[in-house]
Amino acid sequence: MNRRPRLAITLGDPAGIGPEVILKALAQESRECDVTVFGHRALLTSCYQELINQSAQDYINPERLLIFDLEHPIAFQLGHPSVKTGAASFTYVKTAIDQTLSGEFDAVVTGPIAKSVWKQAGHHYAGQTELLAECAGVKRFGMMFVARSPHTQWQLRSLLATTHIPLADVPRQLTPALLSRKLDLLLDCLARDFGLTKPRVAISGLNPHSGEQGQLGREELEWITPWVEEMRSQHPQITLDGPIPPDTMWVKPGQAWFGPGIDAAHDAYLALYHDQGLIPVKLMAFDRAVNTTIGLPFVRTSPDHGTAFDIAGQGVADATSMGAAIDLAIELVNQKHKTHSESEDSP
Questions:
Q1: Tens-place pLDDT, residues 242-253
Q2: Has residue 280 got a pLDDT over 90?
Q3: Contact of 206 with 219, CB cutoff 8 Å
Q4: What share of the chain is helix, strand, coil (3-state, %, to 5)?
Q5: Of 215, 302, 305, 342, whose CA is between 20 and 30 Å from 147?
Q6: What does the pLDDT look like over 292-309, one tens digit per residue?
Q7: Average pLDDT, stretch 194-216?
Q8: Once rounded to an integer, what is the mean pLDDT over residues 23-36?
Q9: Res. 121: pLDDT tops 60
């Protein structure tokens, strides 16, 4: 299979910075892919005119874009989300998912949405990830964050075992069965999407110093360490390290990100809860991290930032993460095509 990746890019909430960062990212450079933007042409054109009147930055003219024009344009004010903008952003992503599942596209790149406004519009999802999984009919999925260092070109990959739940609920949610599902999902993703069949994976501990032999918490002693040992026996082809104390697990990734030390870093990191995985990712790669949903039958990426309603329409939004989301989608689609082609050619 030798074709250009076909990307469906959704605007996100039109009152936020989604339209701006898309117009900036698509103007930065030509990419080996075919892009269709899901939104309103009139909305993008209006945003474009407003931006070029106040900013000297480069924006792609919407006239050059293939746009999947949805419904009638809505009345709204930049920076002021509403039920209408929430409904529109839901329609953008839902239509892009349906078109992708029907075979029209290889990947969905989603602009940022406001979950609270989705709920106001009657769409009760924890986020776009859950909608994507529901539409695709998958129960086994995960939220992984990927970023490539501009200093060393090393690629950081961090998967969250638990996501948007209160910190007090994390120890109750974590079980050997949950971690096994997440690890299997991670290994499948590394092989299929990144071509890593013998990866080195780091597993974080839960407690300070990974419990310090039960003195600071007993989860590591009672079940996390035995689980890691069992996974090593089940997956002899991988290198599995852990549970690594959470405060030191990110030292080697930091060294690989900023300078020498790539060889010592792992191919992927399994963090046990939201902030444990995302504080270091955002510290190193706030402007270029990408959220990718793994476990779907298609590629999904998204910039790792929100709607930023407070700066919408001012021409100051940073499009680096949106550009990285587009580039990662291209990379993952090409790798999936390569893996599929190799499997077909093998005897």
A1: 999 999 999 999
A2: yes
A3: yes
A4: 45, 15, 35
A5: 342
A6: 999 999 999 999 889 999
A7: 94
A8: 92
A9: yes
Task: Determine how many CB atoms are found less than 10 A away from the CB of residue 195.
Answer: 11
Rounded to the nearest 10 degrees, the angle between the axes of helix 18-28 and helix 41-54 is: 80
CA atoms within 13 A on the CB side of 253: 28
Condensed to tens digits (0 to 9), the pLDDT of residues 48-67 reads 998 988 776 799 999 999 99
User: Would you state the pLDDT for residue 56?
Assistant: 67
- Give the per-residue pLDDT at 344: 64
Q: Decide: residue 116, CB within 10 A, 0-12 exposed, 13-18 middle, 19+ buried.
A: exposed
Residue 283: CB atoms within 10 A of its CB come to 11
Distance in angstroms (rounded) separating the CA atoms of residues 267 and 264: 10
| Residues 129-163: tens digit of each pLDDT | 999 999 999 999 999 999 999 999 999 999 999 98
Cβ neighbours of residue 160 closer than 8 Å, sequence gap 6 or more: 142, 143, 144, 145, 271, 273, 274, 277, 278
Return d(Cα 79, Cα 304) in angstroms, integer.
19
Left (φ > 0), alpha (ψ -120 to 50) or beta: where does 295 sit?
left
Distance CA 169, CA 339 (A): 38
Q: Which of 340, 220, 324 is nearest to 272 (CA)?
A: 220
Q: What is the spatial distance between Cα 125 and Cα 134, in angstroms, rounded to a whole number? A: 10
Question: 15 is written with which tokens?
Answer: 């009152």
Lookup: tokens for 137:
């009919």
**Strand duo 239-244 + 6-10: pairing:** unpaired
Q: What pLDDT does 173 receive? A: 96
Domains within the chain, CATH numbers bracketed: 1-138+296-347 (3.40.718.10), 142-292 (3.40.718.10)
Angle at 100 between CA 191 and CA 282, to 5 degrees: 55
Instruction: Tell which residue, 101, 16, 11, 103, has the closest CA to residue 65.
Output: 11
**Checking phi first, is residue 63 left (phi over 0); if not, alpha (psi -120 to 50) or beta?**
alpha
CA–CA gap between residue 256 and residue 184 (Å, rounded): 25
How far is Cα 317 from Cα 21, in angstroms, rounded to an integer?
7
